[in-house]
Structure formats: structure tokens, C-alpha cells
Amino acid sequence: MATAMMDGPDALTGGKDSAGLAAPEAVVVRFAGDSGDGMQLTGGQFTLSTALSGNDLSTFPDFPAEIRAPQGTLFGVSAFQINFGSTEIDTAGDRPDVLIAMNPAALKVNLPLLKPGGLIIADSGEFSKRNLEKAKYESNPLEDGSLEKWQLLSFDISARTLDAVKPFGLGNKEALRCKNMWTLGLALWMFDRDRQPLIDWLNGKFAKNKVLADANIAALNAGHAYGETAELSGPLRQVHIGPVESEPGLYRTVTGAESISYGLVAGAQLANLPMFFGGYPITPASSILHNLAKLKEFGVTTFQAEDEIAAIASAIGASYAGQLGVTSSSGPGIALKTEAMGLAVMTELPLVIVNSQRGGPSTGLPTKTEQSDLYQAVYGRNGDAPIPVIAARSPSDAFDCAIEACRIATQYMTPVILLTDGYIANASEPWKVPDPKAYEPFPVTFLEEPNGPDGELHPFARDEKGARPWIKAGTPGLMHRIGGIEKNPLTGAIDYSPASHQIMSDARKAKVDGIAKSIPAQEVTLGDASGKLVLVGWGSTFGPIHQAVRRARRKGLDVSHVHVRHVWPLPENLGDLLRGYERVLVPEMNSGQFKTVLRDQYLIDARPLTKTSGQPFTIAEIEAAIEAALA
Amino acid sequence: MNEMTAIKTTIKDWETDQEVRWCPGCGDYAILKAVQRTLPEIGADPSKTVFVSGIGCSSRFPYYVESYGFHTIHGRAPAFATGIKLANPELDVWLVTGDGDGMSIGGNHTMHVIRRNVNTQILLFNNEIYGLTKGQYSPTSREGTPSPTTPLGSVDHPASPCAFALGSGGRFIARAYDVSKDLTTVLKAAHAHQGAAFVEIFQNCIVYNKDRFDDFTAKPVADATQLWVKHGEPMLYAKGTKGIALDVAALRLKVVDVVDGDWQAAGVLVHDQTNRAIAHMLVEMPFGAYPMALGVIYDDPRPTYESALLSQDAKARAGRTPDLAALLAKGQTWTVEG
Fold first, then answer.
1. Of A362, A426, B112, B242, which one has the greatest count of Cβ atoms within 10 A?
2. Complex ipTM, two decimals?
3. What CATH number corresponds to the domain at position A423?
């Protein structure tokens, strides 16, 4: 889904020779304002209208950790970036073509991202002396010529909004809140979008307050009308981006947090189990708990525990009692759950642990994305405690990954870690609505009768996959004790003799290693099965790696892309596949963690390409690395 | 306790084939026996009974009871028990913990399982010491307790488990000690209570804190120092010669002498197990000037967490057919024609 480059920013602004320019294939728009300006909501609604118009798209919400940072400050800027086009899109775009800046701070923070020649739309009404000072501007950038290398369109959006909503008699503060709808109206005009879905949405949202609905609609219409007028007199012009060619079917937009929630529900259904979700609020993982709390009719019980440890402990307790236990968190919370994960390994109970990674260590960057919990997932426990790890690469991929996590957990009687990240959790993309019936069910069978040859119970006897039987607490006659102490391989009774610990350690490892037999062979995502260079990625770096490899290949460079879903155990053919390339480059948003795993497993000279700024890779960064590697 | 069919069992049915590994003479043996005596008497079904524990000497308990048992991680047993209970409320869940497990590392979870009122029996074995890690002082150790980590004596103030449980919103608070013949009575009452039933059991650690509770459990002093409270009966002790009355002006309890059995004349309180204010006073009576309050100190049930949560869930599910395909296709969608 390529960020096909638009034909330069002039296509948007009318430039010198507007008549001669073709419509761009894709555009990147960034809405930026104060945390309280409603930029995420504006972006979300713009996304929806974009999706409804048939464009492919990818979004990147980029907001501060503070809920309401002091108004007008640099650290309080909240932004929403969307890349959309008539061609395949799978990143939120390297650099915006259009920056909508609702105040000086938003301009200052986001301007470095804007493409040279890009369009700035600024609310001059907010460029007061005080706001300029807060943004640490010595003079007004709208007037001092410092924005010369961009196209600038500045006018008093605040005043125009106040004018538009005047008939509704709102207070000044409430009236100004409609600014985001005014801005959205302008954006809808720019990209030739239908206003009606937005009007319907506003009527629904403010169903109980007709005046607010009408005021917001008036602001939306006024912004739209302004676009039409400005076209006659200013640098603004309307751009039409045609629909993308996609597979026929029903589509919607989905965020990673939504698709994971739905995937877990689907996974529990395929396992034929009720689901118990124990969670504790943490950014950016909370939305999974929010989503599941609304899905009770699917046999979901949600429990907001007193802390992260209680969240996982309750989920393990529920698994012990025969439900599919699930817990979710982000890095620091996962750290707290670690001891309990060891218990789930030791007692061999199914459990799905979702980690929506964020920048670390410690509290790190709560609202920014990173992939730095890979070591934690693969290696991070006391003792030899192997846990399978799956990584989702995009919001829509997360649905299938969640199902896969449920399958492995229940079929192999093991905790499974599902890695996603802040970017996937919040970003949305068009999603071809899957048919739940198309997935192979994996119904669970509980042990109902003693399984020993003489009618005794062997809770840790293993099947051909190495999995022990799942014995639901409460099953008549199958009373037994489990716990974190090493046990006898047969009876499950406490037994920390040297022989037992050796046998059980080996069995736990063999079981998890054996999962590789049930996962698909690793495919080459793009390119050839051998060659000069391969980029190996996992997780949300999929978009930029894919685009960069595509562009490099168009230039004739010998480079391929391999994207790994099963991070642990790795697909059985991965080592041989990677050995078929002269060079292996591993781009990841950490200091080189998957690179270590690949080196360790295959003794190959995997090289790192790392980024830990809290921002996703740009395509250009990866493209440059490809060129450097092949130079 | 749970609505279940009473099952006929004997004490033998509740013994496992595991060799019990507590130190010879440990108070835990007496508690284990008391529990194994109680279970047949309440008609418990081994298949529907789950013992959940954390870490520590007390937490080895599940291995010795022939039922379902889950020996979990340090301090977190209440959270496991909550998950078990929510997943299957039919299960009769007993939580076994100690003063270190339940009051120190797991204090948070003890608070919340009680606050939520999860229907479990919580047995906190209080020996005022860390046994399994070899004798360090615990959060219930008295001031001045010498231990490997406090060679000059501990300086911090001990926690009072029953006061903590009551302060956490507990609706059943009881106290007993390991070798007491009335322990089973207390356990039965705890089991009969619908909701989180908190039982503090003083337990003699014969290796690291030997005879710590002798000042009220030793035979010669027992009568004079133990106040066994019973609902509807006057709070008398020392063979009826002393009682507990309310000092109305100071709003606290006081010890009064009872002459010729005329406890009414002495103003002795009749124990009302639903009186929360008196319960607070009873669990906080400073021992020495006052006796040790034992028995069912407070018992006033209210709806359990799992019944509230599961009935809310059932209401949310009522009349709705789970349709995943419809859920996935919800919201604003568009169709790409073939």
C-alpha cells in the first residue's frame, strides 16, 4: 500500500501552473493543535470520511502523555496525521503535505516535519502575543517571513467560527470549541468529501443537545464554504483523490485496539470457551479493556483488577477454572506480571498476554510507540520459562494474530505473548471485514476422566504436542494440586529432585519449540527468496519497510522484505531462508533486539537499523539504509 | 459457602497422599486437622472445593487437602481466587495465607478481595514471624522483636489483621488460634457466611517464634485472658467474673467485674455480631488490660462481588444473540464492488 508520492505540494496549493498538474496519488495531512482542541476527534472523523470515499489510508495519532497540558504550550501539542490515496497506503506518511496548525505551539512543533513547499493552514486568531511567547516565538512567524519556503494560508479561524455559530447563542468558550469542526469543514472541501456522514455523526453525538449539534454543523458548513470562496481569491485549491483499487467486499476502518479485542473474542469462540479478561488501566493498552467490557454477550467477563499482578493472576485463576484467561498491558505493567507468567509456564495453563508496547524503560514515553519489549517477551523471566511470542504488524493483522494467540495457548497449554504497540493500537486503517466462519475452529477438550493406565490421574501427562491435559477445577473426581514448585513429571506432586527438574525443564522447552511445527513456513513478503540484501522486520515497522523495499526495487536494487509474525518460536525455515541473502538488515524501533535473536538462533551476521525516538520509521530512513547497505 | 448438595465424607477423604512437611509441632498441623474436620461437617464436596494459597509455610496447605488446590505466587492468592470465583462461582474457594503473605507482600490483594466481597474463606495464619525464610520479623511482629534483620529489635508498629480486614470493608471478621477446640466452629461460621469471610488464626511457630501467644493461649491463663464472643450472649470471660461493657462517655470498651453472675448489673454488653462499631473496638482492644477477643466478632453479609458482577453481565447478555459477523461489520462501512 504505497505512499505513492504526490506530484509535489503544488498540486494542492495551485502553485505556479496549477492547470498542468495531475491529481496526486496520495496526500499526507497533519492536524495539530492544543490537547484541548479536539485534534484526535477531528482526525478520526476526517479518517472516516476518507475511508467512505474509497481511499486507502493509514493514520498516526501523536498526542502528549498529559491529559490537558497547559494551553498553548509546546509540550501540550496534539497531532493527528493521515496518509490517504488512490493507491495502496501502509504508513502514515513520512512528511505532511499539509499542516493545519491551530496555534503557534502546534506550528512550531510540527513545522520541521512539513515538506518543503507544503501548505500551512494556520489560525491567525490564536497567534496572540501571549501564545507566541508560550511557543517561544520571538516574532510572529505568520508575518516575519520565516515561513517563506512553504505555502502559507493564515486567517482567523477563531473569529470565523464565532461568526458562524453566533446564531446559536453559545458562550465564547463553547463557541470556540466548534473551531475543530470549522477546520474539518475546510479539509472536507479541500479533498472534495461529502459532508453528510459528518452531519449525521454530529446529530447522533449531540442528540441530547440540538443547539450544540446545529452549532457544530454550522461551523462545519462555514469551513466548507470558506474553502469555496478562498479558491476564488487565494492559494487554496481543491484536490480530488480517486478511490483505491481494492478487493471486492465489505470494508470498515479499524484500530489495532479494536481488532485485537475482536480477535480475542473470535479466538475464544473458535476454542469454544468463555473468555475472562483481567486488566488494569495503562496507556496505550486500556482501550482493549474498554472494548471488551462492551462485549459481554460474547461470553466475555472483564475484571478491572487492583493492579497488574492481580490482573494476570485473576486471568490465570480463570483459566484454572476452565475459561480462556486473557490479560493485557504495556511494558511497565508487563514487567509486573512477569512472576505470574512464570507460574503460568510452570502450571502449564493457557493464557494470552497482550503487550501494547510503548517507549521505555520505566514509564518512558507512555503515549509514544516503540518495539523495545522484545527481549522482555522472549527472554525476560526468571528460570527457563519459554513463552511463545507473536507480533502483529498492522491494525488489521492484529485480528488474525489474536486468534493465533488463542489457538496456541489452548492447544499447547501455555501462556502466549501477543506483541503490538502504541502505533498499531491507535492507528486506523481500512479493513476488509473478515468472515469468522472462514477460520478453522480449535475447540478445547477438557479432561473428564482419570488418564492413568490404572485409573489414576496424571495431570502432567503429555499428548503428542507435549501439552498436558486441561483439567477444569470442579470436575468430579479429578482433584489434584498444582503450583509453582517443580513437580513430578507424571503425578504432578511436588518433586524437586534433579531428575524431575531436568525432565520437566526439557519438556517445557520441547513443547514450546514444537509450536514451530504448527505455524506456516516463513514467506518472503516482497522480493526474491535470495539475493544481496534482505530486510527482516517484525511488528509495526511493516509499513515503512515494505514501502522502502518497494521503492528500492523499483530503482532496480536487489533487496527483499521478510516480515516475521512468529517471533518465538521462529518459523522452521527462517534460518535457511535468511542464509540465502548476502546481507541481513533488521530495522526495528529499539536498540537491536530482534537482531540479537536472529544472531543467536542462526549464527548469521544480522545487522541492526534502529530508531528509538518514539516515532515510527519514515520510509526515507529505511530507503537510505538500503542504499547504504548496497553501496 | 455455596448452594450445593451436601456430600458425605470423612476426615480421611480430605487427606492427600503427600507427606506433610511442616516442622514437627508446628501449629499448622492443628489448623489442617481442624479444616479437615470441618469439611465433612459442612457437607463439602471435594470436587467443588478449591484451596488457593500464596507463598510461605501456611501456603503449603493446599497440597495436604484432597480437593482442588492451587499454590500460587507470593501474596497474590486473593487475585487468583477472584478469577477462579468469577469463572466458576459454584466452586467453594478457601484462601490460605500468612502474616507475611497476606499482610506484607499481598496486603493490597487482601484489601481488595475483602473490599469487593468475593465469596471465599480467607484463613490468615498469623505467627508474627517469617518462617519459611528463616525467622525475619513480619508486619505483625510486636515492637522490639529481635530477628536476623532486626538484631536490635524491630522498631516498626505491627499491623492488626482483623482491624485491617474490617477497615477494608470486611463483612465477616473472626479470630481463633491453632489448637483451640473452637476453631472448627469459627471455620463453619466463616463458611456459612456469604461473602469474604476473614479469619485470623494465631499459629505457633515453634522454631522461630515459639509460644509467642502463650500470654493468652497457655492453659493456666486461658480463662482469664480469652474473651470468646458469641452472638446474643453477654461478653463474659474469666469464668463469668469479668465482662466487657461500654464506657459511654469515653466511647470505648471497658473491663468490668461481674458479681454473682449479675452481668446485667455490671452493664456487660450482649454481643451483636452485626454491630460494626463494637467490632472495631473488639479487634483493637489492647491486650493486657483487656482480654483477647476471639470467635465470630463481626458477621453481617451483603451481596457478593461475583453475584453482582455476574448478574450485571447476565442482564447485559439477556435477549442478545452473540453474532460476531455482525459485530465486525458494525459502524460505518462501505462496499467495494467486484
1. A426
2. 0.97
3. 3.40.50.970
